[in-house]
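Fresh eyes needed here. Kindly weigh in on this sequence plus structure tokens:
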Amino acid sequence: MKYSRYNQLCSLETDSHYYLLYNFLTGALVKLDEEHKRLYENILTEKGHDEICAFLLQNGFLVDQFDELSYLQLGNKLTCTDNELLSVLIAPTLSCNFRCPYCFEHHGSGMMSKETQNAIIQFIEKSIQENHHKQIFVYWFGGEPLLGIKIIDSMAQRILKIAQKYNVSYASAMSTNGYLLTAENMDILERAKLNRIQITLDGMKETNDMTRILANGAGSFDTIISNLRQMRTPIQIHIRSNLHKKNAEEFAQLKQLIDSIAAETGVNMSAYGAHMATYEFNNENVDDMVLSMQEFSNVLKNVGIIGNSKTNHTRFAFCDAAKVYSYCFDERGNLYKCWNDIGNPSRAYDNVFSAVKSGLNLASTNATAFLAHSFPEDSECLECKILPICMGGCVLKRVLEKHKTCSPVKYDIDGYINKKYLLSVGIDVADTGN
């Protein structure tokens, strides 16, 4: 018998007489007084504590013959090949009304043709028929997807009919800059059965308008805030703020503003901080603006954010890019594993027309880079106690760009656990939305 490699023992921040013991694999969390902390630390050498040993074994704090790392590897394989969920990201256009300097996309000007729309619909129905999916999740992306609102309206209704025909559950979401979220477009998105919308704001007005720039050079803050204030919708609204060195100090103020708008409108609206990352294809060199993960973690800590999804303890796969039945389509029908590659044909691994006709080409390096390396192989990751909630981070960065990004939790493990405890006793704590 031995201690789990994923245990963390820390002090309870609100009461120095108590401690918290957390396991990152099982998600088990217990509060210990001084005596039980001592018992835990000596449980492998002291006899006569069978009940406590049984409890620690049951919750994963102690392991006997159980190989935790092999369990994570198996869970990763099963998750990445699971056919229950069909996940489809669709970019109806790569055109955009913004010119954000840190954007990684290759903006085009065209709209998805009827032929491409038909092929994607055919692809979806064929996949449901052949792979017996029980759920379908559709994510609308761009460019700016609302520039193609008519395409979204039409395709969403067709996909909804397919879901109904095959008794498949349906969920949908969108990433948008928020500038075109008019009342008319919100009605269309509600008809399309969207569950949530992600909108980006990078600080208060002056700061936001330095990076969230319209194609004509004007700012976007006032229009987006006006759109938010006018909303009356059941769709969840997530405000993402790409945090960097020039806006990190404003995040708390922005979060307050969003909370006040949520209270005014009654809309389920919240703000979260995301790490502004650099990629090979950023529009401009923004390296001097990027926060280290330690700095990013400190920003989250200062506003009481938990630093990772508060509902997750073991994720098995970092993101959908590592999953077989997850597909990203650009407006020409090119297929990608990662949405960061959308619009860059050199990173596509197939096209919807050939996929419908002859089957998917998963042997392409652009697919195997994600599917074959969904589980990290380096010693730092394999020995890290937060591996169950991180799984090696972004596969694109880790495998293709050779630049691993660690979870912000790594830099504030004790703070993360303390926030988990607050949640367990009914005190609400914000998360990053990741």
